[in-house]
Structure formats: C-alpha cells, structure tokens
Amino acid sequence: MKAFDFLNKDTEIFGKHFIKASAGTGKTFAIEHILVRLIIEKKYPLFLDQILIVTFTNAAIRDLKIRIRKTIEKSIYDLENENIDAFDYLKPYFKKKEKTLALLNLALDSFEQAQIFTIHSFCYFALKTFFFEGKEIFNLTDEIFYQKNLEVLIMDYFQYFIDLKKYNFEQFFLFLKKHNKKRSLLENFENFSIFKKKDIFQFNFLKKFNKELLKFKKKNFSADVFKDFDNLEKFYKKIKNVESIDLKKQLKLFVNILEKKKCNKKEFEEILKTKATLFQFLSDSNKKKKNFSQKLLCPYFFEFSKKNIYALIQKSLDINLMKKNLSYDISVWIKKNLKEEDIFNPDHVLIKIDKALDNKSFIKNLKDRYRAIIIDEFQDTDPIQWNIFKKTFFNCKAIEAFYLIGDPKQSIYSFRNADLYTYFKALKSFDASSISCLDTNFRSHPKLVKALNNIFSEEFSSNWLKLPKLEKNIKYTPLNFVDKKESGKEKGIHFFIGKESVKTKRVPSSYLEEEVFFPYIAKEIFKIKENIKSKEIAILVKDRYQANRIKRFFKKNNLKAFSKGALSLSESHAAKAFSEILSAVIYPKDINKIKIAMLGEYISSDLREENIEEMVLKFCYLNTILKEKNLSSFFREFLNTKWGNESVSERIIKKDLFFYFDTIQIMELFLEEENKNRLTNNKILNFLKEDLKKSSSFFDDAVQILTIHMSKGLEFDVVFALGVICRTINSTEEDYEEANSEKLRQLYVAATRARKRLYIPIVIDKKEIPLHMVSPMELFLKKRLDEKGIIEKLEKLGGISYEFLSPSKIKPFFTEESSLKLKYPLSFKLYEKENHIYSFSSISENRGKRRTILKEKREEILFSSENLPLGKEIGSIVHEIFEKLLSGRYENFFDEKIIEEVIEEVVIKGDIKKNILKIMVKRALFCALFEDGSAIKDILHYNFFTEMEFFFGRENYMKGFIDLIFFHKGKYYILDWKTNYLGEKKRDYNRESLKRFMEEQKYFLQAFIYKEALENFLKTIEKKDFKDIFGGIYYIFLRGLLEDDYTNGIYYFYPENSFKDILCKEKNLII
C-alpha cells in the first residue's frame, strides 16, 4: 500500500482518499496540512467554512481547532519570511505569496466559522440550519438532562412496569441481588440501544421446562431413585451451605414433577430458588474419587435430569441472558416515553437526519454548503453515520475532496454502537489508487517502534487481528520511525511476569495485584521519576474498580496518582449536586433552592414542613460560616453537618464511594482556586459551571490512572498496560469471538500509547477457562504458557526485556520534603519575643518589643513553659480547639470525652502534652465569668460565634477576626483567648499585672476596634440600642487559670470611653 505523503507538493490532495492511519503516525498533523493545502491550491479557492471536518469527541474538536489555527499562523509566517525550512508544498507560493497570504489571513480572520464537529453536533447543525427543508424540528437535549431522564425512566420501569409474567420472581431476584445498588443497576442499561430484537431469547422457561418433562419415558421409578441417592450420597463431597436434607427435598420435588410430567409456577420458582444444587452435588467434578462408578437401579432418571432439566435451569438463571432481554424491553419502554415527552438523546439526531435526507431540497442545500469533507476516526462509525455521508457527499460532483481517515486496529467502542464492519464496507467504495496509509510513527522512540513491530509481526503472533464475520484478519504493517538518538540501555518493551498461586474467580487475584504487580509498578515509577515527570507516566487499567484498587495502594505508599473518570469532574453527579448545595447556602432565604438541595444526593430528605424549617436554619448557619470564615472551614462544617441521623460524609461514603471521591476532588480544586483569587458568591457558583473544567493544575504532578478506552488518542512517556491481563465475562458465549477480537484491539491501543517505554504484564495461570473469559494478553499469546513456554516465546523477540516477579513489600516512599523532621522549639527561653497574629498589631507602635522574664522557681502555675511550649504555634492550636468546640456542632461541648476528641483531632505533634491542654480547656469552660457563677459551659451551644471576620476603618481599612462572640441573657459579649507567657507565679496573672501587660501590648486598642466592629455588625440585625445589648469584653489569659481561683488570668472590662478618646492616647495612628 502506498504512503500518503501530504507534505510533498506533487501529492494530489483533491479527490477521494481512504487513509489508514496507525497509532502515532501523525493523523492530526496530516489533517492540519491537508486543510491548509485545500485552501491555497485551488484556482477557485476553498474557504474555511466550506471544509467540513467530523471527528469523534469534543476533546478532539478542541485539539484540532488549536492545532489547525497554529498551522495556519505558521504557514503565514513561513510565506512572509520565505522560510527555507518551510514545508515542501508551501515553497512554490513564495513567488506569488500575496494571494496565498490573503487566503490564509482570511481563514485566520474567519476561524470562528470553522466547520469542525462531532457527528452528532454536525447533524444537529444541519437540521437547525435547514430545518424548513428537513421538516424535522426539535431540540437536541442536553446530555446531562437526557441522562437524568434516562435514569428516572429506568428506575420507574423496575419499580412499576416490569412484566413479572415474563420474568420469574426468582430470576429477577438473582439479578437484583448482583446489582443491588442503583449505580450498578443503571450502568447495565444506559447503553440499552445496543441490544436489538434479534438478540433476545424467549424467556418463558416454564413452558420449555414442561416440554422437556414430556420427553421423560420412565414410570414407577421413585422408590429406585431414592435408594440410588442413599447409596450415592457418601461418595460425593459436601457443598457449602447445602445440607443432606435439602438435597433430599430437591430430589423429592424432581421425582414428583417427572412422575406427573408437569410443573406449575410455584414448583418452578422453588427449583430456581434452590438453583438445582442437587445436580451440582452429583456432578463428576464433585466426586470424592474421580474414577468411582456405582451400579444404579434407575440411571435413566439421573442422566435425563442432568442433560435436559439441569441445563435448562442453568440457562434460566443466566443473568447475562436476562440482561439482554431486559435491555430490549427497557429500550421499547424508554423510546416510547422519550418520544411522548419530546426528549431526544444524541443518537436520535442521526435517525432524524437520515430521515431528512429523503427530502431533495434538504440534501441539495447540505451539498451546496460544503466543497471538502474530512471524516476522522472513521473506524468508530456505524452504518447510519456512513449512510449519511455517503448519501450526501460521497458521489456529489461539487465535493472536490473527500477523506475517510481511521485505523481498524483501534476500533474499541462497540459499546457505543461503533461497527468495524462498516469501515470495511466503505473501503470497498474506493478505488485501489485512492487507498493509502500513513506509514511513519512520529510518536514513539525508534527502539519502542521496532519492539512493537516485532511483537505484532506475523512471525510472533500470526493472524491476531481477526474479523470473525468476514472470516479474515487485519494484516499488521510494520511502521517506519524517525531517527532519534538512542538513550539508555533499557529495551523499548519490558514484560513483567507474575504467577497466580491462589484459587480465585478474578484474574489477576487480589493477592497477585497487591503483593506482586502493584509493588513492582510503584518501585519502577519511583526509579523513573528521576528523569520523567509523574504526569507523563500512565497506568492503563481495565475498569474503575481496578483503578480504585491501585490508587488506594499508591496513596498508602505516598505516591501521587490521579484517576480520571469517564465523565469529567464538571459533568459528574457530585458537581451537579454540589452546585445545588452551594446555591442553597448562598441564598438560604430561597425556599425553592432549599427544596432542590434537600432532594439532592447529599441530603435526600423529604419535603415535610417541619423538615424545611430545620433545613433553612442549617443553611443559614452554613451561610454564616461561608461568609465569615474561609472555604476550608465551610467544607469541613458541611461534611460534618448531620441531616437526619448521619453526617454528609457518612451518608455519601455509604452510598457511593466514587461520589465521595468526586466531592473531595471538587473541594480540593475550590481550595486551590481560593489560594489564587478571592472567591465571591458569583465566582463560587461560576467555578462549578465553567472554571472546574479548566482546573487541572492540582493533578499536574501525579501518575495518570485511566482505562484503556479513555487512553485512546492520548500519549505518555511511560505506560504500564496493567488492564491487558484482566479476564472478562462477556454477555453470552455465542458472541465471544467478536468480543475477543475487540479485546485484542484494546491490547493494541494500550501498547501504542507510550513514547519511550512500555511495560506489559503477563499472568501464568494453569487453570482451564472458557474462551469467552480470557484476557487480551492470553488471547495474544494464544495458549496458556508455563514459565518455560513464556521464556521460549519471548526469547524469539528483539527489542524487549522480561523478568519474573515474586511477592514483595515496599516501604512508603517519602520525598525529600516529607522526610524532613522539624525540631520543636525549646520549652523555655530567657527572652520571649511575642508573636501576635492579630491584624491590629500592624498599627501598634510597640510591636516586636522583647519582655524580660526572670527565671524563678515554678510555684502555682500549671501551664508553664515546661508543660506547654511557647510561641505562636501553641496559640494557633489552642484557638483551633476552642473554635471547634464552640462551633455549634456539639451540644455538650463541655463534656470531657468531646474535649478529648477535639484535642485528638487538632493536636498532631506527639510532644505537646494533651492532658495539660485538656485541663486548660476545662478550666476555661468552667471558670465563672458572671456574678451568679455561670460560666461558658452554661451558655447554649448555638449562641457562640467563633472567629468572626470583620472589615474596619475610616480612611484606611483593616481586616481581622474576633476569637469569640457569645450571647447570654440578652447581651452580646466579646472574648479573646490569650496564651501569652507572663511568668510562672500566680501574681503574674492577677488583675494589676494583666492591666499593665494589656497596656504594653495595646490590647485595649484592639478591644475598642473589636467593640466598634461588633456595633457596626449588630446595627444590621438588632433594633435595640447597642449600649442596651452589649455586655463587655473578656480577655482570658489561659496560662494563668487556676483550679481554686477562677478570677486569676481573667481580665473583664466594659469600654466606657469613645473610640476617639482611645485614638487620642495613641500617636501616629490613622484608622
């Protein structure tokens, strides 16, 4: 087959072209330059909006647009500067560049009109543009809205409309037992349209069962059968959870049914309920001695039952068979309902346009719209899509260029209706001279390309790319490569081989993954990270379950990994539900938003009046947290908030672990954004709608974990193709040949994602397995091989290396940063520099002065520098403890167990004495603040407002936080916690000492600022005069609190002076 040299000026780029583009051969690069040549090489030029490009995904559209624009810009630069390194096809235009530049600049100026679509968006565009001619007026439903409707209809079908006459209760029960979660149930039927009427199996097994019973010829056999069973029973192994009495009950049931040669519905349900374990018990594989044989009085009964009855029972319990039938019934139900509701999914638009093409006026307008067609990823098309393009453009004389570009080896989307046979059917429409290929791999290093050529060669694995329906194979053509300097001694492909040593249904087993493959991959990644960025390393897995297993392993061992879901985070259920919560929090007075949030995934509450009132209060509280603190505090509070009997985090972890992971990921991205920009309410809501799609910097340095399907079109420096060793169970054994053919194409896709090195696992497993269960790698190797056989097979290859693995343990990896051990400050110093974190200190004249502390023998003070370290860190810890305790979350915040729980949560360092902290906190909560002896413990938990943020100022402005405001007996009080070390004697914390210290540190100024800020705030919510509702200010110096003297360490005062009087005492202060 000839190569398509699109950069050569002598290559004809007009006309019909069918281009086979293997992985890494620069398909997108080719499309860019074909488009530029189409614009500049015709006497009557083609304009950008006359060239239609259709590709498979929205991501591919974005990539194409970016790259085409850059190519046009580069072509303009090369022409203007007559660049000697310009591509061959451009050089002839150096002499007549004015016209060519005008055409390219016009394309650049009109780039917004570029006709680059997915197949669905193109069809929708065509119907919308020519809707009068097409006579098919409708709105294409938003994908998320359609998905939501689909889910509702599927759940409605199972709840109300399933035909239980067709599906026996026991059959249905078994199906629901396997798919007992909503998500699992929905996943089975979201692609309902792939099952056609021809695929379904008549599910009335009772009728068939009765037909089989009529074939039984024996009479008067019951006594002999029971004697036979008594003699046989001792020669067979026991079956787990099945007693002898149960087997005899089954036998009696079968004997009665065969005697009367008729089975009613109740009896059939009873048989299904037992799963006919009698015949499993009597199977040859369950014999204690394999060669044992016994003369029977009635062998015919056992032979007939096993062959005719047991086989039918097994089929009636086949969940996959039931899934096919249910899918067809659901598809009929859904299509009927969607049509009635005028809701269309993206695939319906194909049917609509196919119908519209019968209208001559519509098809004429569509033909006149374009002069060149480029269909990308053609291997993923289906008969309807090909019919649309063939009927409209293929034989149209006005179309001056028609391209189909694809690679049959990468056709892996049959679950999306992709039909590889349509590709080959279209191929027959082209002359041999129109068929060409891209024959050079530009993506991968030469040594990797050579190795890939070797493993996919006919010599190593002949006829591996099968087309069962056509009874032929796709021939693999070796690719050329671009010469690059050889780097390193490593081979292009490395096989790592593990031996399955445990009995398991799943291969690879949990043991093989956790003890062999995962540790090996982790060690290899840690080694190669020295030269390759983490984000350039990919682990390709079979499905999200395997992705989650390896992600957990990496997390446990301190390796950063990012697992990308099938939907982007912005399209996930978590993003939608979180948006509803944020709307309700930001607008807590909007009852409709509250109701929507209540019905959402996070709360799922009913809409009773008393519930709504309670929810409004909770949303108002969350609104306060969001406004007055930061997002981190809000997220923590939201996850811990109880809606009913459990918190949000408890609820969503139980409900769906992946939903929980998405929630945490969204929160992390919010926090990253908050570090860059101040987020207003509008920005918070817009972030979920728009910016979340763009936020990826959080994952910039993480190993990428993704499925083989999702990896298509992507490339990485190093790839671990872990998913190719996973066995699968297909729908039925009948269609395994097509499924196995696609598995091998998945192997090809996985193997061609790497630029520098590819790691491929192999599992040695001696167990016999059906063909429909084998893994892609087992199919590729063609037979089960032992260690010797694998060595013989791999030794024939060049450019590869291999090693056999054994179980290994790894120590968690630590980066240089994480392994640093910080030394804690010394417990006592002669001089202490006070570190104030309060914003008022920025205007304090005496900020930073040292206080001399005399070393005296410690007497009465428990919270000395020896027991509690000095410095601002202990201050931050103490403040956080009080903030959590008094946040309103704990009704009995003064309870000793709750205090211990909060201290455990906050204090991480082991050298801080938690028992000393507990005593300090208890004394603070129990010390008498009022004349009647009442303390903080006596104040209701919802009357505290912690870390209240304020903005304050006259000409200049200042931002700050008030530690605590509390409401008690009709008055508001301000309280400030202080951990300053003033000495180790009781007198260092009496009222006179505290007053002197407060004057030194300008804490009175701070107090007046707090008072004025509170007054300004209360004006917005209280009608009473501030003097009537303000109770005063407490400064509690925690180190001075004593067990027997509740006045020590506490400084209370009521600011009588005006703020202006205070300012007059201070110099050089302008607020």
Please give a structural write-up.
There is one protein chain. The protein has 1071 residues and is an alpha/beta fold. The chain has five domains: 208 residues, P-loop containing nucleotide triphosphate hydrolases (Rossmann fold, 3-Layer(aba) Sandwich), CATH 3.40.50; 175 residues, no CATH class; 162 residues, P-loop containing nucleotide triphosphate hydrolases (Rossmann fold), CATH 3.40.50.300; 120 residues, Orthogonal Bundle (PCRA, domain 4), CATH 1.10.486; 227 residues, Lambda Exonuclease, Chain A. The protein contains 41 helices and 26 strands. The strands form seven sheets. It has a seven-stranded parallel beta sheet with strand order 13-16-12-17-18-11-19. The chain has a six-stranded parallel beta sheet with strand order 3-2-4-5-1-6. A five-stranded mixed beta sheet has the order 22-23-24-25-26. A hairpin with a 2-residue loop joins strand 23 and strand 24. Helix 1 packs across helix 2 and helix 35 crosses helix 36. The longest helix is centred in the first third of the chain and has 24 residues. The protein is globular and about 100 Å long. It starts with 14 loop residues before the first strand and ends in a 6-residue tail after the last helix. The C terminus is likely disordered.
